[in-house]
Write a structure and sequence with these properties.
Low-confidence stretches: none
Radius of gyration: 20 Å
Shape: globular
CATH topology of the largest domain: Isopropylmalate Dehydrogenase
CATH superfamily of the largest domain: Isopropylmalate Dehydrogenase
Number of strands: 12
Helix content: 40-55%
CATH class of the largest domain: Alpha Beta
Number of domains: 2
Order of helices and strands: EHEHEHHEHEEEHEHEEHHHHEEHH
Strand content: 15-25%
Length: 334
């Protein structure tokens, strides 16, 4: 049985949508137990009673607009997110899922779960769906602004293991996000990162990838620093939103286009379904000693269920053990 800790109070629509996602997960998977951390009275308003769901009561939780998560960690260890993380650290649960504030998860990951020995940085790694439904791992998308080449190498190794074990890709291809596809492009650290990845036998590195190719490249893993990755991620989300709005406006303003849209309805529905972020689940905080899934702050029940599904699959694949082994091999001569 896989035990997953749930931050029931994290997210814009907590606890209602979180608990409804919990109900879905328990209904669909009979090999999981869920431990919910949060206000028991509020949780029970939406929870379907089940012997595989337990509640650890606390009325404290991190607000989505928290300004100083480090201060919160130091002054109040009983926040639902931090209690859930401690359960993973102490081996009581196998993974944690939260839709709480990103920086709160990063802080908790650093101070509670701690980094895997050999990892110098952690990274936020979302799964990016393209128009065909294929998923790519992008990291870092916001945990670090500054980086060193060896950090990007570690990210590439870890993400390759996740792609193999979770996405079931036998030989995941790794690309370095850069301003040009040719070798020799980019900043000094990008050039060094290129050489490190090209020489490492644990990854299948294919070279530089321009941002415009993110949804078209053969790569399964896209590696960059946190600043660039965050800009790239938000640009992708904005482009999808703008494209959808433009299509809707054109359809509404023209009878001829409206008739054409009816003929194209199934194609549009397929694209919408393939790029539906709710199906993906959440991002994984890479580099910490435990499975930590960050669901989107605005997750509804279906999106949060899929984040739980992710945690379940990664725990079953024993991803952390595989990552530790690979990182140890990489840094054995350091």
């Amino acid at each position: 049985m896989i035990k997953i800790a749930i931050d029931a109070m994290g997210g814009d629509f907590a606890p209602e949508q979180i608990i409804k996602g919990v109900n879905l997960a328990i209904e669909k998977h009979d090999d999981i137990e869920l431990v919910l951390y949060g206000d028991e009275k509020l949780i029970k308003k939406h929870l379907k009673e089940n012997s595989r769901v337990n509640i650890v009561h606390t009325t404290d939780f991190l607000d989505m607009g928290v300004e100083d998560p480090v201060k919160e960690f130091r002054t109040n260890p009983n926040h639902s997110l931090f209690l859930a993380m401690r359960s993973v650290k102490e081996g009581e649960t196998d993974a944690i899922v939260s839709a709480g504030p990103t920086q709160g998860l990063v802080v908790g990951g650093h101070f509670i779960l701690r980094r895997i020995r050999g990892m110098k940085r952690v990274a936020i790694a979302p799964f990016i769906p393209d128009f065909n439904g294929r998923q790519r791992i992008l990291l870092d998308s916001g945990a670090n602004v500054e980086f060193k080449p060896e950090h990007l190498l570690d990210f590439a190794i870890v993400a390759s293991i996740i792609a193999k074990s979770y996405l079931n890709i036998e030989e995941p291809k790794v690309g370095l996000i850069n301003i040009g596809s040719e070798k020799g492009k980019g900043r000094a650290d990008d050039l060094l990162a290129y050489d490190l990845m090209d020489e490492n036998k644990l990854i299948n590195f294919i070279g530089n990838v321009e941002p415009k190719e993110m949804l078209l490249t053969d790569c399964d893993v896209l590696v960059t620093d946190g600043f660039t990755g965050n800009v790239l991620m938000k640009s992708y989300e904005g482009a999808i939103k703008a494209f959808s709005t433009a299509i809707k406006t054109e359809v509404e303003n023209s009878f001829k286009v409206k008739m054409g849209a009816l003929l194209m309805k199934s194609a549009f529905n397929n694209i919408k379904e393939n790029t539906n972020a709710e199906k993906v689940g959440g991002a994984i905080l890479v580099g910490v000693d435990g499975i930590l899934i960050k669901a989107h702050g605005s997750s509804n029940d279906f999106a949060f269920y899929n984040a739980i599904r992710q945690a379940r699959s990664m725990a079953k694949a024993d991803i952390i053990t595989k990552i530790k082994k690979a990182i140890e091999e990489t840094h054995k001569n350091d």
